[in-house]
Amino acid sequence: MISIVIPTYKEAANLPHVTRAAADALAPRGLCYEIIFVDDDSQDGSEDICARLAETDPVRIVVRKGKRGLATAVMHGIEIAAGEIVVVMDADLSHPASVIPEMVARLETGESDFVLGSRYVAGASIDEDWSLFRRLNSLIPSMLAGPLCHLRDPMSGFFAIRRSDMPDSSILSPLGYKVALEIFVKGNFQRASEVPIHFADRQYGESKLSLHEQLNFLRHLARLYAHKLGSRS
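The structure assignment produced for this chain is given below.
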């Protein structure tokens, strides 16, 4: 069983599209999977849409009342996942579901214990409409996080792990939206690898990235450096 965890907030328009993309990638290969949408009480019709999707696809939605935050939504989704393999991806169609089988295969063969969908390895690409500012807004945080890990794209929110390899929840304190970095730095992963992806721009809905979230990332980065330095002392 593969559990695909997708955090959502005001992403109703994207739910059918990401569900279909996952089905097209996994069903023809006979892979057993579920999609878990963890929604931060969007109140935008997402629950009704998921109820209709569940008539034909292995979809469920969990609505968190009074809570908001991508990182904690991902953590909750992993906790309730039925699958041994967990894939985390965004709802906005920026992450191509077509590479999920390759990510899963690397875990199943033991080649990797942490697989990242990467924008910055050979064969990867980014939507041509990205402005210079947006490219820098992606590259600079990756450079800041570089000393924490050996990943080329630590800012990617598209990753796959075995649920049994998740670090204990007692040491996790994600802040903001970079939960993959949190899990990797605090986990015990020895064989990470990156799968090249084409990172597409969203077609429906609005980006949730704000100045507040960017400041949270800097706070989160400071926490991770403190953790890393503390573990070496």
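Interim note for the steering committee: DSSP finds seven helices and nine strands in the chain. The first helix runs from residue 15 to 26.
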